[in-house]
Amino acid sequence: MKFRGFADVFLLVMLCCYTNSIRLGEKEEKLLRNVLQEFESAPDDTRFDRIIEMSYSDAKLLPKIFIWCPIRHNGLALRCPVHDCPLRVGKWTDLLDGSRPDPRNPRVIYDLNGNLVLVQAFYECGHLLPGHKKTGHRYLSASNEMTRLLPPTIAKMFPIIMQQRCGFTLRLYDYLITGIYQGQNFMELSEGIASMNYREFMRNNPDSEDIKRDFECNIFCSYPSNDKLMELFSTAVSTYQRTIRK
């Protein structure tokens, strides 16, 4: 059973490489690492409790960033679910400059007024897994295995509903359920998200020579289709409601 849990983590890492992971360029990676350096200098700063809205000049590169590492930010001591030994913080998912997918690529998360970059830490254990020759294994800080280890008060601070192939913020979730209660259908909700993203993109890029083309090519302006919203909503309702009852 424990080995199967690790297999799920490995699958999640691989999915991060090929689904909703992002690769941009050198400037974006440098900006992301500057923010991570600020986190490393003061990991308990309350600024990192929430999604970071970048400055106007930087928003053209990375509009929003969320860093998730409860071991550092909240001073938690988490233990490996397989070996029951302390986990240590390893590298970050901070690679944006590269031609090939990499487990260290961050994920893009659907949000309102543009999407955000989710940066996770790798939690490392130095012990050997059954059936493996190489010592050591690791978990992503937002994986299900790690989330289950968190105190409820800390777990509720995570502002994202994660799924295998995508994720979306709780404020987008709130937008969905509010729209549904008001009688909107999923097509209208998808168009509403697209409109909000477009208006925000215009504000951040007033000098664009072809705003429509640039908008359509920008990964931070992508938005879930009506089918994706239906899928996200149906699974997120039960998952999120189970979480808030704990």
Seen as an oligomer or otherwise, the chain set is single chain
Low-pLDDT ranges: 1-19
Radius of gyration: 19 Å
The secondary structure category is: alpha+beta
**Can you count the beta strands?**
8
CA distance, first residue to last residue: 24 Å
| Helix count, DSSP H or I runs of 4 or more residues | 9
Largest beta-sheet characterization: 6 strands, mixed
**So what's the overall shape?**
globular
Helical fraction: 40-55%
What's the overall average pLDDT, rounded? Answer: 86
Q: Topology as H/E string?
A: HHEEHEEEEHHEEHHHH
> How much of the polypeptide forms β-strand, as a percent range?
5-15%
Describe the structure.
With 246 residues, this protein is an alpha+beta fold. It is built from nine helices and eight strands. The protein has helices at residues 2-18, 26-41, 70-73, 144-147, 152-155, 170-181, 186-204, 211-217, 226-245, and strands spanning 52-53, 64-68, 88-92, 107-109, 116-125, 137-140, 160-162, 167-169. The strands form two sheets. Strands 1, 2, 3, 4, 5 and 6 form a six-stranded mixed sheet that branches. The two termini are 24 Å apart. Keywords: Signal. Residues 1-21 form the signal peptide.
